[in-house]
Design a protein that fits this description.
Oligomer: heterodimer
Strand order of the largest sheet of chain A: 2-1-3-4-11-10-9-6-7
Strand content of chain B: 15-25%
Order of helices and strands of chain A: EHEHHEHHEHEEEEHEEEH
Number of helices of chain B: 33
Distance between the termini of chain B: 40 Å
Radius of gyration of chain B: 30 Å
Helix content of chain B: 25-40%
Shape of chain B: globular
Strand order of the largest sheet of chain B: 20-22-19-23-21-24-25
Helix content of chain A: 25-40%
Largest sheet of chain A: 9 strands, mixed
Number of strands of chain A: 11
Largest interface: A-B, 78 and 84 residues
Strand content of chain A: 15-25%
Number of helices of chain A: 8
Radius of gyration of chain A: 18 Å
Distance between the termini of chain A: 20 Å
Shape of chain A: globular
Amino acid sequence: MSDIVRPRVLVLRGPGILCENETALAFATAGFEVHLRNLDDLVAEGYREERLIEEYAVLAIPGGASTADELGSGKLLALKMQHQLGWTLAPYAARGGMVIGIGSGFHTLIRLGVFGKEISVTSNGGVYGSAGASGRSFQAWVKVTPIGSTCTWLRGLGVVDLPLRHSDARIVIHPNRKTETLVKLQRRGMHCLKYEGNLIGSEENIAGLCDPSGRILGIMPHPESFIRWTAHPEWTMAPSRANAPGQGLALFENAYQEFMRAIQPPA
Amino acid sequence: MFARIEVALKPEYPDPLATPLLRRMEMTDPHLRKLVRWARSMTVYWLDVPLSREELIYASQETLWDPVLHWLFTGNLIPSAAGKHGNVEDLLETAPNRPGKFFALEKRFRLGVTDHASRTLVQSFEAVLKRSLGVDARVATGSMLLLEGPQLTEAHLARIARGYFSNELLESWTLLTEKEISHTERFHPERVKREMPKAAPARFYAPIERLAVNSLTNGEVAAFCKRKGFSFADPEIDAIRTGFERDVTDAELELISKVWRGVPFRRLMRAEIIPNDDARAVDEALGLPLPEKISGLIDGTFKESIREVPRAWIVSAFENGSSLLQYDEEDLLALETEIESRTVASDATYGSLMGYSEVYLRSICAGRGAKPVLATDVIFSADLHSPVPQDQDHLHPRRVLDGVKQGISKAGAQLGVPTIGGALYLDVKEGMTPVVHFSAVSLLPKVAGGIPSETREASAGDRLVILGAPTGKEGMLGTPNVQICDTTLLHSLAALVAEVRDLGWNRLFIPCGEGGIASVAAKVAREFGGVELDLDRVPTKISGLRPMEILGAETIERMIALVPEERVEAVIGLAKRRGMIGAEIGTVRATGKIQMRAPASAGDEWIVDVDTKFLRGSQPRAHEEITRPPAVPKAGAPRAIEWGDPAKEGVETLLRILSHPNVCSREWLIRQIDHEVQGTSALKPLHIASVSPDVSHSGPNDGGALKLKSQSNHGLIMTTGLAPRAAATDPYLMGALSVDEAVRNALSCGADYGKEDFLFALTYQFSCPAKDLQDPALRGGLVRACFGATRAAIELQTPFVHGSQQTIVGQNSKLHFVVQALSRSLKVAGIRSADFKSPGDAVYLLGPARFALAGSLVAEVYGAVPPDSTSPLPEWDTARRLYAWLGGAIGKEQKKLRSIHDVSDGGLMTAIAESCIARGMGVALQYPDGLPRTAEWEFLFGEGFHGFVVSVGEIDAILVEAEFAQNEIPFVRLGAVTGSGVVQVRRGDHPALVIETKVLRQAWKREGYWE
């Protein structure tokens, strides 16, 4: 990747992925060269993880309703990535790549096993399904707080407001292995983002997880939806700030800065 | 190999089907709910797949089993995938009462109903095994509901099955006893084999039926048509007889019926309408009298608004395809509307999903291909407190509305379109079936592939390529009138449209849902000279479809692309790569005819050979007389008050209004439907006081706004206007008030208004039962509403550009009339919300304040109006000045408005209360002493035209007031916002209304429920 001057991000699109355009916009605003590619085209090409490592600094799995949640949100996408493309993403992160999965993109990372087999996510389950632990399926803005310093994406962030959609999708931990899993998450700095308040019943208020390298982030709220201030529900209190950036942009800028740091020659 | 796999969530997790099902039962049939002590659900898969046992085990574990969440019950296929018993006993043991009395209801889709989950499972197996399973792989999905309750009888279980668990139109269900639940016999391969959906019959073609229309009576023709599933009025049969000097095929009749579809409304839309004197008369202050003769309702009304108010930003309106408006230098907006009632009656969830999908499909086909960016739903439903229906045929309004909500929510979430600017109207008089008015706005480049997007051109020799889903029997006689739309495929279709458009491979996309291939063929032939179709090349879901069915089926997830011959292969190849069908099915011809060839197996002859001039010009034009509907007599004595002193009755009145079903909080609904997706939200349906899940911190806005493009500073605003209560006074007034409210709401959100180049367009939608169109007075009401709306649109210089109408089912006589405004704010910073912002801000009433009690909510609440009450009247000249100031065309101090909220349902006091609720603000206001009693009520709670409550920083008040005076804008300075948390209104020197804001908030939050 060292010969790339402007970092390139691969933003996946395909059946059930809905948020690819706003995700692409967030990366472009942060300074990335954005490539939107259909997952089925990658499958047809036999696009292996080695090529991903060579060609892209960041992989983004946007939110949506991957194949309408029929087998569990993000499931089919994960199966295609795992079995048809052979992606596991750990080698990619180990070679300096960064990954973000947002909303159902986070679900895809969970289904891929990036955060361990003890972590899962409840999801809608068909057109008549709904209701997570809260008994409600709704969208709202939430406050989330970064934890620790492992996650590269969240570096330097304080409490931020972000929109949450379809909040019945909540993170759960294997009931028989909860204690050891929590210890593992804490020890490795993987529980990197928590909800302020337990709006949706996500275990341990988990709003985001990262892998032990801190380069792969799964996040439930949508930072790509808050890259300009007018998206915030209270912005009309201060119209003069209408053109200010939103707090979500910082995540994408962190990825950009990380790339720039990586390519700078040592002092 | 045959297998049955049951997937259950572990008992630690809330059940996604049983939990809400029990909650719905609790709300609508508490007695039945008490009989159910425990319930859990499982998803069931029946598999017939060409796999070895080992392959099936591997694929099932990879796709269906999440060890954190699931238990899998598979007979003996995967014994390790459940708890200690390894079977359903694991689940039954979690019931609180053991030993209990257990039952199970099992449901599955009926044959012919699309089962999308089965397709996803096959795709997943193929991904895991890295090979195709071939066409012989069959999967069916269903679910099982386990119930425990010692007093449950078969009758109770049937009520649960029919009312809460399944829709018998689409699904079949069976009842299992405890013994059957525990027994593993249902996993036996032979049993699974028996239960698999039967293979489709071999492809065959029934003979094409020909009707000797010239030798049969109208009655005989009508009987033939009825058997085929369509109908014609006598004059139409005469026209067909005249147009054909030969026998007519059933496929030709299907084609004609599709093109002349919507007989009751179509007749009125085309009719010569003759109003009598009474029906023509209109109050001079309200508008103009109706003409003596109206040639076509839409042409004589809504289209007239464009002739009177031509605007350069209207690129096309009321023409083929969507209406197109210029948004900015680069892009156009396309508008689409759709009304659903019949399908919602059949299944509220899938019916709503279908309506949304239909409008989405049309939106992506706009111009040369477009991206939907905004959706709006206006729902009319029965009051949620209606009594529990006593018969099987009706579900409780809560149950139905919940289904509508789920359908819209799912569609929005799976298609990725933000929903803003809609409305929910609840009516105690409404029938049991909701009516949903859908709208969608899409964005498209002004020029695509070097050709302006509004250009509709094709050449003889261009090919018709069908894209999307294979054709089924949807919409045909003998099938459910609701279909389960595949939103994932629709979304992929939208992406395909953008790809094909950007590559410049297509000329046009034509939606192929409602009206089917027949309707597309007629459009192509009419616009481009003729068409020839080969129905044998249309991919179908099931074999054996007859030509008439292929022609008429209304499978939604399809479109037809007009493609130059040299691009056909590329377009089809791309479609197949995107997981959908693509097939060339016909050619544009310069024959002036629609010609369709039967398959070779049916004789390879023309089964349709119809002149387009016949289709376009032969439908007879009816003459319809209309009268004026009588005003609904005023109710008897007031129920609760005798219109006493507002100082004594005002607080109670305000609380009753705020908790009224049509004023109170809609947060329970709004938050379950996505308005944030695409990341464009700039004004949400609710304003909030802090980022918190606590609903007490929200209040209503007057509409919604989006910032569509990152590189543009424009805001797009969508708002709705409704005035159903005014119909009882005069439908003409209802039409005018609806327009004024939609415009007011847009201005409240910050829309630009008052200059010719300011985008500000209206759409109409109306629906009523077909029987209403037979009644001259009810028909007259509809016509008057259209004229009232048109006159208001002309007066306000906001033309109608699009609309739709539909007959509905299951309703009392009722006209649903909806106006929506699509407008723009050139600077997104000009968008405003309705909440009072800071203590000390000055509060004003803007507008002529000619409020009235007739048709008001306070009159509905109290059941009567005072004897000397009047109806509201507009002041159009004043309105244009006020609106131009608010819209930025005159003056400059409007930028200093800190909040703005229109005065509508519940009048001035309600608007003030709604502005206080979110932030817990108070107000200290004053209104004039000495008003006559009725005038006092009118001032506080009356409704009408052109009213706004605004707040301005105290420091800016002098400048703003000076500009009001300079521009002759009527205003009343009412007082100021306070931080006291108390709404205090004084009459002269005396307190009149004093109430804490938190009490108002409690009243406002009363209605609704979360699901």
